[in-house]
Amino acid sequence: MPTASPVDLIVVVVYLIGVTIVGCLMSRKTHSASEFISAGGSLPGWVVGLSIVGTFVSSISFIANPGKTFSGNWNPFVFSLSLPYAAWVATKYFVPFFRNGNSFSAYEHLEQRFGAWARVYTATFNVLYHVFRIATILFGVSLAVSALIDVDIRLIIVGLGVLVVAYTLMGGIEAVIWTDVVQSIILIGGMLTCLVLLIMRVPDGLLGILDGAYSTSNNKLSLGTFDFDVSGPSFWTVLLFGFFINLQNFTADQTYVQRYFTAKSEQAARQSVWMGAVAYLPISAILFFIGTGLYVFYRTVAVLPEGTQADAVLPHFIMTQLPTGVSGLMIAAILAAAMSTVDSSLNSSATLILCDIKNRFFPPKKLDNGGQPVFDERASLGFLRITTVVLGTAGIVLALQMIQIKSLLDVWWKVSAILSGGTLGLMLLARFTNAQGALGAGLGVSAAVLCISAMALSDMPDVASWLQPLYQRVAPLRAMVDPMMSIVVGTMAVLLFGVLFSRKSASGKA
Question: For the chain, which domains are there?
């Protein structure tokens, strides 16, 4: 594959320097832990909404989504169609709930209902998930970009990681959000530029792409079968999967919940959720359409090198078909998608460690007149910044390990699905029922983890021999239910066991 020209490299370097400067300038506004976490609750809804868009579009989806429609059809787009439904639930029932709470953590209220274990379990999982996500994003984007600019992947991982850590620890959540705004603009601009140039290169333009995709034997524009069949990736399977995943993002993921506190009002917080959800629909549609256009382009106009993988088609198009300078813009867009994900994960994880670990188990000895702990804002700010550096370093080290241990990524996605099994269920149990106590919630989480483990690991060829009898027993279930449905099964298990075996609180729902 051809590599970037000097002009393209200048575009990329200017972007990296510019976005880092924007983030570091926010350090002038960050003087306390609460400002580091919530930006003083002063940001407009549209700014927070653009930040949510940047978090949605990771560098993995920027490259992988076109690859999916290049090699398949539009069935994955159904995931995006579920966003408005999840956004409605989040804005109606959860945004006001979180903003009226007493903590920046998404999980503190779980302790009040189900015990400290629920709070620690969900917070610990979320931190682990985001550290590995940082590593995954850094590894994935560096792998793609290293082929485009002919730079060692290790240098890209370390350099990109250090830049994101620098502006995140200096400017806090306000730096994260404003840099995400810049990155979202670069991302959208790069996508639209690529789309227009692709349409111009296909005979008959837009109509040529649509006709070429529709006329194939398997209809590249299909959304999948509309039969209600959850044993495979039907329309309804992907829609249910998308709804539960997006609902988990909006209600049980600290990176999203924390943004609700940065908005200047509850109405602005609601607007940010709707903006993120509605804006992602056309953005994802463009990415998927680029994949369809590339399929038609390489059937009618150009020929791909033999053995080119689906995820490598867009990078190949960028370097061989786009004008000099525009290729640099597209590389910057890929980096923007990565940075807007990594900075969010760093800030939210540091917040959870402060709120749910340090302040929960090691509170200050000084008390106010009401007997409540008095937290030192400056000391907490220092702790947040140190934690950001530690988490960023851990993500960089893990990303470097993924170069040598490719299976580490596959194993983590399996484990993360298992550990997240009870998170959304616990949130829904606390919000919509009057259940309380550790028994029912604990049984529900255990059942969810067992169900998801069976569905997630049953297709692994190297399952330990002593587990084979168990997986043989669940094989019929695996044949009946697609692995994407594991979050649905796990969430319903938490709700069922929680309602049946929990005590009922006298005051009703939280």
Answer: 6-363+384-404 (1.20.1730.10), 408-510 (no CATH)
